[in-house]
């Protein structure tokens, strides 16, 4: 433990230009420390991440089902509109002499209105799905970052003495504040 603490303390001290050597202390090298921290994060965060993704998947599937139900309602409206169209066509044949052009105009308006409604419902479904996906991605990113930070702080808490602990926390808070300023 003393070697580990000494390696953190010696980070601020550079050896003189005349000396050269290799650090043979495996615990003081960065790749080992990073692999341990990443291993702990993956081990403890995998289950939570899977649960989050499963919950998100269910929400997205529910949204898709709701959109499909809306689509079904739109199809029903389309069928009703087609039935009305057939009725209008029968009336058009009966009243062709009196107002053929007016009935044709009504038919076109009805068709256009129905297609616009269908397009609006399809656009709404696509926007809802896109919005839910973006929100899910944002939530997962935030949770992963929070869990990684908590895991790293937990690992550091168990390895550092009070003075080094306070210095590390101050540095992390500064980095976190800078990241928040960039994101906002």
TrEMBL record:
Share what the entry says about its subunit structure, partners included.
Answer: F-type ATPases have 2 components, F(1) - the catalytic core - and F(0) - the membrane proton channel. F(1) has five subunits: alpha(3), beta(3), gamma(1), delta(1), epsilon(1). F(0) has four main subunits: a(1), b(1), b'(1) and c(10-14). The alpha and beta chains form an alternating ring which encloses part of the gamma chain. F(1) is attached to F(0) by a central stalk formed by the gamma and epsilon chains, while a peripheral stalk is formed by the delta, b and b' chains.
The protein in question is named ATP synthase subunit b, chloroplastic
Q: Name one Pfam family in it.
A: ATP-synt_B
Where does the record place a coiled coil? 71-98
Keywords, A to Z, come to:
ATP synthesis, CF(0), Chloroplast, Coiled coil, Hydrogen ion transport, Ion transport, Membrane, Plastid, Thylakoid, Transmembrane, Transmembrane helix, Transport
The superkingdom listed in its UniProt entry is Eukaryota
Q: Which species does this protein come from?
A: Trapa natans (Water chestnut)
Q: Which family does it belong to?
A: Belongs to the ATPase B chain family.
Q: Which CDD domains match?
A: ATP-synt_Fo_b (cd06503)
Q: Which GO terms describe its cellular component?
A: chloroplast thylakoid membrane; proton-transporting ATP synthase complex
- Segments passing through the bilayer: 32-49
The record, for InterPro entries, names: ATP_synth_b/b'su_bac/chlpt
Q: How does it sit in the membrane?
A: Single-pass membrane protein
Location of this chain's protein in the cell:
Membrane; Plastid, Chloroplast thylakoid membrane
Instruction: Look up the further comments and give them.
Output: In plastids the F-type ATPase is also known as CF(1)CF(0).
What's its job? Component of the F(0) channel, it forms part of the peripheral stalk, linking F(1) to F(0).
Which PANTHER family does this entry report, sorted A to Z? Answer: ATP SYNTHASE SUBUNIT B, CHLOROPLASTIC
Please list the GO terms describing molecular function.
proton-transporting ATP synthase activity, rotational mechanism
Kindly give the HAMAP family that the UniProt entry links to this protein. ATP_synth_b_bprime
């Amino acid at each position: 433990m003393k070697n580990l603490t000494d390696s953190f303390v010696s980070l601020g001290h550079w050896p003189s230009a005349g000396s050269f050597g290799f650090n043979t202390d495996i615990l003081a090298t960065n790749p080992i420390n990073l692999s341990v921290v990443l291993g702990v994060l993956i081990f403890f965060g995998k289950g939570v991440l899977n649960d989050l993704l499963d919950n998100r998947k269910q929400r997205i599937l529910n949204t898709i089902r709701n959109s499909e139900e809306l689509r079904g309602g739109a199809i029903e409206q389309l069928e009703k509109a087609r039935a009305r169209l057939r009725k209008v066509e029968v009336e058009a044949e009966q009243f062709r002499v009196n107002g053929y052009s007016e009935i044709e105009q009504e038919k076109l308006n009805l068709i256009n209105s129905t297609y616009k409604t269908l397009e609006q419902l399809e656009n709404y479904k696509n926007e809802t799905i896109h919005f839910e996906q973006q929100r899910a991605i944002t939530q997962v990113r935030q949770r992963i970052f929070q869990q990684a930070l908590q895991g790293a702080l937990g690992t550091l808490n168990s390895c550092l003495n009070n003075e080094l602990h306070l210095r590390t926390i101050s540095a992390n808070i500064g980095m976190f504040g800078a990241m928040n300023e960039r994101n906002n």
